[in-house]
Design a protein that fits this description.
Helices cover 19% and strands 28% of the residues. The strands form two sheets. A seven-stranded mixed β-sheet has the order 6-5-4-3-2-1-14. The protein has a seven-stranded mixed β-sheet with strand order 7-8-9-10-11-12-13. Strand 11, helix 6 and strand 12 form a beta-alpha-beta unit. The protein starts with a strand and ends with a strand.
Length: 270
């Protein structure tokens, strides 16, 4: 039985795949692995008997409602935000369905800077107590600091600093009941040295990889493979993938232990 799992709710870049108005081979592809919603993930921790104990979502992407319906998610214990860019947060209003289903506010974990940006754009979603407001999302702001792990249910979550060029974004190193470590690190151009040290030897690494051609704010294929060689995870999944990448074509060229993520893929850690 797994102790920890991650489901890729979306593996695509900010415009999704297919992209609006594009007739390229990937956007027109019949391969379901080339259909990519905006990047988001569901992390579950399990009891010793294999029953789900804690469920958190990483980012409320622009496709959040569709992702929750497709994955048949009925309950959430918390929301983790990597940063405030629109493709990762604009689905936040639909969290209100979980407030209604569970009859409680939910914690929203992010840096103080990300929470401040969310308050500017979505002030109405936040509450400072346990009250519920009919028809509105109810999220309790929970600031975190890099280097200071926190717990949500059975999950131990360590936020990691990332350089996204235009802003600082957050990755997460996650364990559950002594499980191997899972690291989720999207939307970055480089890691600070302290983050590299915390990532070395993780079992499963989810890593930003936009395309082969260099990009000013995201990792290219070559840059991502250099990080994999330095960190040496047991296995790696590339995500936040643009429409320049055909899944089958690039997967055939990747080294052993490195895979392209796709929507709906579930990765277990025992």
């Amino acid at each position: 039985m797994p102790k920890l799992s991650l489901e890729f709710l979306g593996s695509g870049t900010s415009v999704g795949v297919p992209a609006i108005g594009c007739d390229c081979a990937v956007c027109a592809s019949a391969d379901p692995r080339n259909k990519r919603l905006r990047s988001s993930a569901l992390v579950r921790g399990f009891t010793a008997a294999g029953r789900p104990a804690t469920t958190v979502v990483i980012d409320t992407s622009a496709d959040f409602r569709q992702q929750m319906l497709r994955s048949r998610v009925r309950a959430l214990d918390a929301v983790l935000m990597t940063h405030h860019h629109a493709d990762h947060v604009v689905g936040i209003d639909d969290v209100r369905r979980f407030n209604a289903l569970q009859n409680t506010p939910l914690d929203c974990w992010a840096t103080p800077e990300t929470l401040a940006s969310l308050r500017r754009s979505f002030e109405y979603v936040f509450v400072d107590d346990d009250s519920l407001r009919w028809g509105l999302p109810c999220l309790r702001p929970r600031p975190f600091a890099y280097g200071q792990p926190f717990e949500v249910g059975c999950l131990r979550i360590e936020p990691l600093e990332q350089d996204h060029t235009v802003i600082v974004s957050s990755g997460f190193r996650i364990t559950c009941a002594g499980s191997p470590a899972l690291a989720y690190c999207l939307d970055l151009k480089r890691f600070p040295p302290a983050t590299i040290e915390r990532l070395k030897g993780v079992h499963t690494l989810v890593l930003d990889m936009l395309r082969e051609k260099p990009h000013p704010t995201h990792l290219s294929l070559g840059e991502a493979l250099e990080i994999v060689a330095e960190i040496k995870p047991k296995r790696t999944y590339f995500a936040h993938i643009a429409h320049e990448v055909d899944h089958a074509v690039l997967q055939a060229r990747l080294p052993r232990g490195v895979w392209l993520a796709y929507d709906g893929l579930v990765v277990d850690l025992d």
